[in-house]
Write a structure and sequence with these properties.
The chain is of the alpha+beta class. It is built from two helices and 13 strands, in the order H-H-E-E-E-E-E-E-E-E-E-E-E-E-E. Strands 3, 4, 5, 8, 10 and 11 form a six-stranded antiparallel β-sheet that branches. The protein is elongated and about 50 Å long.
């Protein structure tokens, strides 16, 4: 074999190799393009599903569930005795709202409330709750001779005409709670009065108080 023939064969080999390499590059590019397009399509589909999930309408309680909650709330309000309701605002904060209870006296240092029963029958025992609550920065003096003296109208039998700290249901620096029990005889509006003596204090001062209270029992 001569040098010319050898060089010719080598030239043909290099040409063939170059053509083969070019062909493989084109095939590799096609495969790569297909893979990239498939991956992009899959990613777009996943994002679309996630967006639909995020934008889905929030689940709201059914009308039946709302009705049941409303009935429960009305029943709780109608139940006898003192009670509270927890209200939830739009920002998620809660606040306890008092239901029932009449303010009999209020100053800058204290408030006196009463829970008065309704729909009373003649001859049935009635219990009125008197609640003394000092305001922020004040406290009930535990040594002062606290006294609640009741003035009942005709047709009312009182279990006790006066009560002190020893007879109170609760007597602390934060609350003085008294239960006034009585039995009405005969229908009509029974008007009560009471003389309430106590003292509220701060760390620097102490003030004796006298509150004139009044409430009405409606007897059927």
């Amino acid at each position: 074999m001569g040098l010319v023939e050898t060089c010719g064969d080598l030239g043909n080999f290099l040409i063939a190799l170059s053509a083969y390499t070019h062909t493989m590059k084109r095939q590799f590019l096609r495969v790569t393009t297909v893979v990239c397009v498939s991956a992009a399509v899959s990613l777009a589909a996943g994002c679309s599903k996630a967006a639909k999930k995020d934008n889905a309408d929030p689940v709201t309680p059914s009308a039946e569930a709302k009705s049941e909650k409303s009935d429960d709330l009305e029943a709780a309000i109608a139940a006898p005795g003192p009670k509270t309701i927890t209200a939830v605002s739009a920002n998620g904060k809660t606040k306890v709202l008092e239901v029932g209870g009449t303010v009999l006296a209020e100053t800058d240092t204290y408030i006196v409330k009463a829970d008065v029963p309704t729909d009373l029958a003649s001859g049935a025992e009635a219990v009125v709750t008197i609640n003394l609550l000092p305001k922020t920065g004040w406290k009930i003096n535990q040594e002062f001779p606290t006294k609640l003296k009741i003035k009942a109208p005709e047709g009312i039998t009182l279990n006790a005409e006066s009560q002190g700290a020893e007879q109170a249901e609760s007597f602390t620096e934060k609350q003085a709670l008294f239960k006034v029990s009585c039995t009405p005889e005969g229908a009509g509006a029974k008007e009560f009065a009471a003389d309430f003596r106590f003292a509220v204090c701060t760390d620097a001062t102490c003030d004796p108080k006298k509150a004139e209270l009044a409430w009405t029992l409606n007897v059927k």
